[in-house]
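Justification of computing resources. Each target in the renewal requires a structure prediction run like the one illustrated here; the chain below, 537 residues long, is used simply to show the kind of job we budget for.
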Amino acid sequence: MSLVEVARDASGEIARLLRQEKYKDDPVLWAEEYLGIQLWSKQKEILYSIRDNRNTAVAAGHGVGKSHVAGVAVAWWVDTHPPEKTFVATTAPSASQVNILWDNVRRFFNLALKRYQAGIVDHPLPGYITGDNKWKLGDGSQLGQGRKPPDSDSDVAFQGRHADYLFAIGDEAVGLNQGFLDALGNIATGPANRQLLLANPTNPGSPMAELWDERITTWNRMHISVFDSPAVTNEDGFIITEDMSLSGWDYIEQMKERWGEDHPIYIARVTGQWAFDSNDLVFSPEQLASAQNTVVVVDKDEQPRHGWDISGEGPDYTVGYELRKGVVWLTDETGKPVTATDQEGYRIRRVDKWNKLPLVSMVEGKDNTTRRIHNQALEHAAEYVTIDVGGIGKSVMDGLVSLEATSYQLIDFLGVKNPSHESYENLRAEMFFLLRDDMVLGRLDLDSEDTNLINELSGVQYEETRRGKLKIEGKREMRSRGMKSPDHADACTYARFPVELLPTGVDALPVGSEVQVDPEDYLDEEALEYGQPSFLM
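Resulting structure tokens:
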């Protein structure tokens, strides 16, 4: 190599290091010049906070681009620090939530590569990113990793991982327990290390919410409201494109109609504030995350149970869920099942939903709710079908009885019935808290993609009556606040209805049923309680 070539290479390396140093001090400029993307004002504030503060916590409304900017932060951090001294550790309560952040990282990685290949920038991002969310260099060493909390020993998930420039991120951090937040803090102890926590502030009792205590001075705290979004403010200089999924006025009005402006879900997901004075919620984000992380491998020999919440021909939906029993499996950081446990679990998935159908029909061949539920039970070989008969569901139950199906058993659910345990006001409350118990015990497997169910469960409120019993907010009370009926959440509890609560034998028969019995079958029972009966010969 000639001296001219050596000098040219040295000059190029000096120029690269100068650019890297410039971008290390200005992540927004890096995003604009290196990636060629635009950021809105609150996203810029997050990046500058990461630059200037050891610890940044962001409570944000829904759809304001927090995972997007976290992906930018990861790519910027890796590009502007020495690879051999750099590591990024990210986590979220579920594998699907981890993937959301890393899908953004992959997108920016590929964007940088395309801009390099087009000659727009002078280098690509280093290494490669695997499908299981690991950023590696060519020699196999790791620059970063994204993983959900493991099924046990959460405090050792990133144990021993240290770097001069370590960046620890907790996405949807309201669902992370104290042990895992501590685990992130324990690895980000160096003077040039950084921590970033982001979440919808849906649980004011979470460890993340405790960081808003005014006595804590080591965190820079931020709130981002949907009202701040450029989709609402039309922020100068920011152009909204079709590929952006920023929440705007439509989302605000939808949440106002569904929950009401005083509901903690509206406060959290729209205003980005902690509803510290909110009524009690049955399910915490951590419990819901546990249910989305839990994997139950179903027993193919076990027949499923169906539960249906019925609506008429209006805008509300008839919704059905299916419960299948199985075995709980431990998973790896990607959510893949790896080891079977000895614990029984329940996998609940939506079967179907529809609206604007007649409940029953006397016209042969006309589509109706009764016939659809019957067909679903036959198709899935359901053992039990539970119907809410507290309202219009009674006519569907009558219609199903008239079909004289023998392959499944019908269960009429009435929420105002007495519970099996005195802690609850009624059977409806008992079913919701049974679902919560399943989550706490790690035996409930819910679909993380079923956002309707997860959102409805996250908004279910309870109160303690004057008699000290737990009561779920009634549908009438919800409607009085302008909220819609939680069709998915209710149907889920019906599918979970424990058949062991059902009466058996003569007690299971309707009043007025005629039976034939042999008196001799009752001789021992009668003798024990009343003495030996006498018979006329």
